[in-house]
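Page 47, continued from p. 46.
Same chain as before, 196 aa.
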Amino acid sequence: IVWKALWRYFFAKRIGKDDCVLDLGCGYGEFINNVTARRRIGVDLWDKMPSHVDPGVEAIVGPASDLSAIDDGSVDYAFSSNLFEHLTKDELATTLAQLRRKLAAGGTLTTLQPNYRYCASEYFDDYTHVSVWSHVSLADFLDANGFEVIEVRPRFLPLTVKSRLPVSQWLIGLYLRLPFSPMGKQMLLRARPVRP
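Result:
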């Protein structure tokens, strides 16, 4: 329900039907399975990932830091959700260097993940988190690694949708349209490669 709503109310307005979309760390395919685009690619270390993505999604099993199976200049829209905090800074730098080559002219990276500034008390409840990022530090890191940050939403979504309220597409759509983000603890950043 969450990803269907995010597609309907947010991402569908940003991704064209003729785009090539790359989902880094796609896991169960919640994002990429909802995308409507000419080409969809999912990358994840998990060897069971291919059985969870739709038949039209190209599944690549491997680390986000190895994008060698993807042609240079072919990706219009790269996306990651809750990935960068699981990578060391060196791994993320390698991933960004690879991604810069894979993005087409005008291509962008959008990342969605916990914002340490607003969820510090919960951030390491997930023992697989290895790097700490806020909307400020991640923007600086992207800048230092050849990307220009073009959008920052420090409080894009709550950390979880578990609450006493029912989870519905309509409520998520309403939340996204609010001028403020109550309980927002996940950030969204969008960046594009700096070309020489």
